[in-house]
Request: fold
Amino acid sequence: MRIVLGVGGGIAAYKVASLLRLFTEAGHNVTVIPTEAAIRFVGVATWEALSGNPVSNSVFDDVHQVNHVRLGHEADLIVVAPATADLLARAATGQASDLLTNTLLMARGPVLFAPAMHTEMWQHAATRANVETLRSRGVAVLEPASGRLTGADSGPGRLPEPEAIFDAAMALGQGQSDYQLPLAGRTVTISAGGTREPLDPVRFLGNRSSGKQGVALAVAARNAGATVRLIAAHMDVPAPAGVEVVTVETALQLREAALTAAADSDVVIMAAAVADFRPAEISGTKIKKRDDTADPVITLVRNPDILQELVEARHAAEHQAARRHQLIVGFAAETGDSQGDVLAYAEAKLKRKGCDLLVVNHVGTDKVFGQDTNSVVILARSGAEPQLAAGSKTEVSAAVITRVSQELNHVSPRA
Ligand code: CTP
Reply:
């Protein structure tokens, strides 16, 4: 496709360099048109080097080519990121004050705006009206992501991640004119990694979970436009950018963090490998081997079942305050045995835990843990046909997040 990438004058302009790379690596021919203000954040040289095309922001450059007419007519798609409050206002009122706004007026193909600004500016009545105007004309305006903004402030107004804008742009380019990110406006809490239960100051009981699946889910949810809270137990991989991270160690800490985060989440996904048991006693000092006493015996006690508690807390909240339904997703690692196969155990677990979806892994020691690929069955409480998803953990995560979006489809975002 021939893409015009309009860049507005906001600090998020630096993230658009990654978006440009995604476009060029996918084989698209991109012409960047920054505004005057955008060039104060990221210079022309960056845009020219990354796009391989000349960059201008004035209608008075290369006048003989009548650039705004040519670019507007030739573009299969125009993407504006970051779309600042000023740029949305100029586009909504049809101004033609620079090359980008001229090009927008000449556009024949689809146009996508990815806004980024402070929350107050995004929520201001003037901006709301401008967004409505643009949408009423068939322009796609993405919801901004929520989270940390430029200063100490946080809230809706973050530029959606480059991968999310890329996905939206591709959908729009393929004719999905009303495309919105499937989890825009939703808050998704995801637990990931393996808990560690201390025995003494230097030892713990742990498990083989790498956190890869939970992190891949967090990325997929973030790319689908959600505000993501990642509750990270021990992980071998770093947490992704653009998500809020709460670090925990034990099952009890994970429980506390999950119940708190769940209170205002639309979706909770329990991908963490939570220890079912913890040592009854934690020694304050290192347990020493001695010849004069018997070897120590470790007594274990049950940890609470967090998934089940989340389901109970949801029921209680719905009962008290007519709260909107929350979608709860569990993971199950099953081996199957002589008493039952993987699916039979998983179906019993889905019933027992009461969650809406259960993502079932078939495990052997060489499968799942620490690996990059996975093969799962998604079971639904609604009784829908089990759905198979296989491939990289990224692909499996995309399938799970798509399924979550579909389940949420008929429920509006929480107020
Ligand atoms: N889970 C949880 N709290 C626990 C243990 C597990 O919330 N104390 C969650 C996991 O995050 C996962 C799901 O429950 O989403 C299934 O965990 P699994 O260990 O497979 O199931 P168990 O209930 O432990 O059943 P079993 O050991 O009999 O397989």
In short: The pocket of cytidine-5'-triphosphate is lined by residues 251, 270, 272, 274, 276, 303, 305-307, 330-333 (CB under 6 Å).
